[in-house]
TrEMBL record:
Keywords carried by this UniProt record: Branched-chain amino acid catabolism, NAD, Oxidoreductase
Residue intervals of the 3-hydroxyisobutyrate dehydrogenase-like NAD-binding domain: 212-340
EC number: 1.1.1.31
Protein name per its UniProtKB record: 3-hydroxyisobutyrate dehydrogenase
Source organism per UniProt: Orbilia blumenaviensis
Name of the top EC class for this enzyme: oxidoreductase
Alphabetized GO MF terms: 3-hydroxyisobutyrate dehydrogenase activity; NAD binding; NADP binding
Coiled-coil annotated residue ranges, if any: none
Catalytic activity reported: 3-hydroxy-2-methylpropanoate + NAD(+) = 2-methyl-3-oxopropanoate + NADH + H(+)
GO cellular component labels: mitochondrion
Amino acid sequence: MSALRRALPRLSGACRSARNQQQWAPVRHFSSSPITRANWGFVGLGQMGYPMARNLRAKVPATDSITVYDVNESATRQFAEEASSAGAGTRVTVAKSLQDVSRVSDTVITMLPQPKHVQAVYQEFIAGGLEDARPRLFIDCSTIDVKTSLEVGSSIRVLGHEFVDAPVSGGVVGASAATLTFMLGASDSIVGKAQPILEMMGKRVIHMGEPGTGIVGKLANNYLLAMSNVATAEAMGFGIKLGLDAKKLASLINCSTGKCWPSEVNNPVPGVVESAPSSREYQGGFGVSLMSKDLKLAIAAAELADAKLVLAEPARKLYEDAEAHEDCKGRDFSVVYKYLQLASK
Ligand code: NAD
């Protein structure tokens, strides 16, 4: 029995029984055949979802169709206008409701902010009736908690459809350039179907294991990122206060054992890395509120397994305080460096 199943005995029972019931018949998601058409659904055209859906539209055969939905109508309108000005190709339809998406689509991709949005969207899909003979594949790329993902997946599988978790790493830049890394939680029989779909929106697909493990991988990575960002901000902060030149200190760290993504690529000290958000008033990048959310999800995931996290609590408070500070909210998560400087004045 896997660690995830041991951590969630009631849910994993539901997953297993749903898997036994399902009769997954292959449908064409993506081929060069002009005869069969595939219908795609995409829900959540935000900072990440919009460019992901755009890449999908550009790569599926022109005979396919895409149905999009977002509560923000200006996003769907813009998506449809962009598709039409790009000329002949995949037909884009703006759905009037979530149920219109799930009714017509063979594959549905969701990219939503939080667990409550994912829950609400999938409840609507189910309420719209998924009980016809056509099996569908649902791919949730949102970063949510393990429990919600497993619960939603079970409620879909029990109806004879497939659901995989495929959260991403790579940010808005990776979503636009189709260079995302997907962390896939899926049963072995679905990997071959999900992988080519994800590869239209990203560069790497790492199959982590059974459903739920993609989310666990994503949360473990973001926990580490949250910590290394704080540690970099603190180390740079005291080094500079003791008289070191910021760029010299960063170069030393980056050819020594402290090197990490925040020290090398996303250095929190303005002027050290010109392309980093810190060098443009912390604009753009990965929002401090998203990091705060992911850290809380990681803490909840660790609690499922009774895994002790000694660094989590002070970091959680730091991100929450930075998020609430007038000069830091809405900025890249590296803004914790600025917050620490303001707080220590
Ligand atoms: P976002 O807020 O920009 O986009 C979310 C979209 O979902 C919005 O357009 C919103 O209108 C739509 N939405 C919300 N509720 C809906 C509903 N009920 N029905 C239909 N549409 C609905 O968020 P984002 O930055 O695109 O992030 C999406 C997910 O990806 C989050 O879980 C986030 O943690 C994760 N993520 C984000 C980044 C990043 O750099 N932004 C990187 C990796 C992962």
